Amino acid sequence: MADINANYLNLRSSYLFSEIAARVAAHAAKNPDQKIIRLGIGDVTQPLVPSVIKALQDAVNEQSTAAGFKGYGPEQGYDFLREAIVKDSYPGLGIGADEIFVSDGAKCDVGNFQELFATGCKVAITDPVYPVYADANVMAGRGGAPDGSGRFAGMIYLPCTAENGFVPELPKEKPDLIYLCYPNNPTGTVLTRDQLKVWVDYARKNDAIIFYDSAYECFIREPGIPHSIYEVDGAREVAVEFRSYSKTAGFTGLRCGYAVVPKTVTGKAPDGSRVALNTLWNRRQTTKYNGCPYIVQRAAEAVHSAQGKKEVTAVVEGYLANSKLIKNAFEKMGLTVVGGTNAPYVWVKVPMNSWDFFTLLLEKAGVVGTPGAGFGPSGQEYFRLTGFGSPENTREAIERLRSLKL
Ligand code: MLT
User: Fold this and answer.
1) Is 236 a residue whose pLDDT tops 80?
2) Which residue from 73, 149, 211, 372 has the highest number of Cβ atoms inside 10 Å of its Cβ?
C-alpha cells in the first residue's frame, strides 16, 4: 500500500488564492453581467516593457539557428544573468555570482529551501504571513496539526499587529529557521535597518537561519529602508535572500526569480561540523531542477539594463500610484490603513470579519480583495487590496467602495 505523506492532511483543504479564485468564479457564473475588478492575488496587469520584449524576441530568434540554439542550461542560471544581478542589485555587498541561483520564481524557492533542514527544526513565521512559508513546512512535517485558530501547533508565530506597529518581536522560544518578508506581504509594511539588524543579531547569537523574502524591494521609496538584508552587517553569515522578477518586471506569467545563498551561511551536520548551504542548494537544484529557460533569463537580463530599469520603474510607479489611491480612499472613509507607500499591498482594518468583508465587497461592489484571515488569525479583521490593477479599474473599484458607505 502506498501510504501518503500524512502531513498534507494537516493543511487547509485549498491554497488561499485557489479558494478565492473558486469563490470569485462561482460569483461570476451567477452574475455574468457584472464587471469584476480583481485586486486580490498580487498579479500584475501591465504588459512587459519594450526592453524585455526585445530581449525575448532576440533570444527566440537565436533558437532558430544551430549556433544560437540552447539545450539544457546551467541549473544555477546562466553567467550573464548571475553577473548582471550581482552588478545591478548587490553592488558593494560582497555577493558573488556563484552565490546567485536563478529559478522560475521566488514562490518555488521560498517553498523548497526548507528541504535543506532537518524535520526537527523549529520554524518561526509572522502572523499574518504569505501562506507558502507555513504550508511548505507543514508538508515537510514541521508544522504539526492545526490548532483550531488558523495556526499550526508546531510553529512559532511572530504576531504583527497594530499593537506592535506591525514589527515582529523576538520570540520567547528559540527558532532554527526564521521567515521574514520585507516589504511585507500582506501588510505592506517595511523594516528600518535597525529593526532588521535586531533579527540579524538574534540569528547570529542563536545560530538560526533567516529566509529573507525581498520580492517587493523595488517598491521601496523611503530613503534608509534596506532593500536587501545584506545591507545589515553580519547577514552574510545567517541569511538567504529571495527575489523575483514577477512584481518588479511583470514576470508573473514568464517566471523568473533567484535565491542568494552566500557561501558563508552554514547549517550543522549531525557530527557537529558546519556545511555551507550554498553547496547543499547547488546539490538540490542540480538534482531536481533543470534551470529557468534561456529566453526568460535573457528577458530578465534586460531588466538590469539602463533602459530596462527605466521602463520597469515607470510601471512600478504606476502600481504605487494605485496603492496610494486605495490607501487614501480608505483613510477618507475613516478606516485605519497601513502599507501602500513602499509596497503594492494596502492592509485595511475592516469593521467586520474579513471573510464577511470579502463577500460583501464581491457581492455588492464586484471588487475582489484578499481576506486578512487567509494570512493568519492576526489578519482576521483586516483586508488586503493590491495596487496591481490598471489605473482605470483601481479608480472604478474605489468609486464602488465609496458607494458602499462603509
Ligand atoms: C500574493 O498575492 O500574495 C502573491 O501574488 C502571491 C505570490 O507571489 O505567489
Assistant:
1) yes
2) 372
Cβ atoms of 236 and 264 within 8 Å: the answer is yes
Q: What does the block give as the cell for 32?
A: 455574468
Q: Which atom of ligand 1 is nearest to the CA of 252?
A: 8
Task: Retrieve residue 215's grid coordinates.
Answer: 520580492
**The three grid cell numbers given for residue 374, joined into one nine-digit string:** 487567509
Per-residue pLDDT band for 405 (boundaries 50, 70, 90) equals: confident
Which of 102, 139, 100 is closest to 123 using CA atoms?
Answer: 139
The answer to whether residues 344 and 323 touch, using CB atoms and an 8 Å cutoff, is yes
Amino acid identity of 126? Answer: T
Mean pLDDT for all residues in the chain: 97
Rounded to whole angstroms, how far apart are CA atoms 267 and 154?
21
Look up cell 528541504; give the residue: 115
Residue found under cell 506597529: 165
Ligand 1 contact, 41 CB (< 6 A): yes
C-alpha cell at 191: 523594516
Specify the pTM.
0.97
The CB of 184 under 6 Å from ligand 1? The reply is: no
Residue nearest to atom 9 of ligand 1 (CA): 107
Neighbours of 264 (CB within 10 A): 16
CA of 383 to the centre of ligand 1 (A): 15
Confidence (pLDDT) at 160: 98
Q: Which atom of ligand 1 is nearest to the CA of 130?
A: 3
pLDDT the model gives residue 404: 85
Question: What SS3 state is found at 148?
Answer: coil
Per-residue pLDDT tens digits for 100-159: 999 999 999 999 999 999 999 999 999 999 999 999 999 999 999 999 899 999 999 999
At 227, the pLDDT band (50, 70, 90 cuts) reads very high
CA atoms 111, 115, 119, 124: torsion sign: negative
